[in-house]
Specification:
The protein is mainly beta and about 375 residues long. Helices cover about 0% and strands about 45% of the residues. The protein is built from no helices and 34 strands. Strands 14, 15, 16, 17 and 18 form a five-stranded antiparallel β-sheet that branches. Strands 19, 20, 23, 24 and 25 form a five-stranded antiparallel β-sheet that branches. β4 and β5 form a beta hairpin. It is globular.
């Protein structure tokens, strides 16, 4: 497959072009990634609650959709890419709600599928694309530990090397990668304070780990603790700036709200290995979809209060003023997936609409490509 030079990004957000499309099957709990010119939306849960093996593939160059299939139907898949060639769909729950170790790999050059195995079965593993190597981190283990500390590295030759997080407690965190610099962050989320016991003790986590690509593997070290532990945050990175925003906390007294959704944004600077002063989203967002589009970090979804996007500029480390509230989503949705092709075409697909009552096949595309 011939490659194209990556296009530049239109700097004026009001000039980004909006269009829509449809997946072949409406579904939620879907996973998405991009590789080369392709965006791939895989697996998920159908309207009737069953899982699917369908993969919808959009080709930015040809502007066409095609469909393919995973080797097994599943949901809660970890999705990412490696070496600019392979799209990986790791783990997930099978039809009997058991975690899987299967990794389906799509070769963007040949259009063919092959399979790998993770060191341990798990659902919802997190994914770090570090360029020459990918890290599949953590997940739901399905045993008494409940959360996994397993890490599987997949290199450009699809060899798998395994290790684990040296964490005080097993953690299901947020994975944020900056592919251009080969660095990644695993932070926030929640941890199990009583692993291996019959009754779990979950708590928002401040544990942070810093990854850096190193040939066929990566270095892994503890990083500065996450400043404001919470559940359900989202994040992305550009130019060595890691942006983590939204999420929720639980009330700790009878007089406080059961759940408070956050507008807080924490920013980690890889160059200085530190977190800076927090910033704010325009609205609180829980489990937001977050993508890097060029130098921008885009927050969308995660709220019923606004269809507008919150756009953070990694060059100025500030949010872009957006009085026109455009670009914006056309449809409010939950439990969707997002990915960005060539760093400039942002796609949001699937999920549920009407406050979670219906699965949707709708795809919204925000084209910031300057070519």
């Amino acid at each position: 497959m011939a490659s194209l030079a990556a296009p530049t990004v239109i700097d004026n957000i009001y000039d980004w072009k909006f269009s829509g499309a449809m997946l072949s099957v409406p579904r939620s709990s879907i996973s998405a990634t991009s590789v080369g010119q392709l965006a791939l939306f895989a697996g998920g849960r159908l309207q009737n609650g069953s899982y699917t093996d369908v993969v919808d593939i959009y080709d930015r160059k040809a502007k066409k959709w095609t469909a393919s299939r995973l080797s097994a139907a599943r949901s809660e898949i970890g999705a990412g890419s490696v070496a600019g060639r392979y799209a990986l769909f790791a783990g997930g729950f099978d039809a009997s709600f058991k975690p899987m170790s299967l990794v389906d790999v799509y070769d963007a050059e040949t259009g063919k599928w092959l399979q790998l195995q993770m060191s341990m079965p798990r659902a919802a593993p997190r994914f770090l694309d570090l360029g020459s190597v990918a890290a599949i981190v953590g997940g739901l283990s399905g045993d008494l530990q409940y959360l996994s500390n397993a890490v599987d590295y997949v290199d450009s030759k699809l060899a798998v090397h395994s290790t684990s997080l040296d964490a005080n407690y097993p953690q299901l965190g947020l994975a944020v990668a900056d592919r251009s610099s080969g660095s990644g962050l695993y932070t926030s989320g929640y941890q199990n304070n009583r692993p291996g016991e019959r009754f779990n003790d979950f708590e928002a986590s401040n544990q942070t780990f810093v990854f850096a690509a190193a040939s066929a593997s990566a270095s892994l070290a503890p990083g500065p603790v996450f400043p404001y532990p919470r559940w359900g945050a989202g994040g992305a990175a550009a130019n060595g700036v890691f942006v983590v925003g939204g999420g929720h906390v639980f009330g700790n007294s009878t007089n406080s709200a059961l759940t408070t959704v956050m507008d807080r944004v924490d920013v980690f600077h890889a160059q200085y290995q530190r977190w800076s002063q927090p910033q704010r989203l325009s609205v609180p967002r829980d489990y937001p979809l977050v993508q890097a589009v060029g130098d921008y970090i885009v927050f969308l979804s995660g709220t019923q209060a606004s269809k507008a996007l919150d756009i953070f500029d990694s060059r100025t480390c500030a949010f872009v003023a957006n009085p026109q509230h455009t670009p914006a989503l056309y449809t409010l949705r939950q439990d969707a997936a997002a990915t960005t092709v060539n760093g400039c075409l942002l796609l949001v697909g699937g999920g549920t609409v009407y406050q979670g009552r219906n699965a949707t096949a709708s795809v919204e595309m925000f084209d910031a490509c300057n070519a």
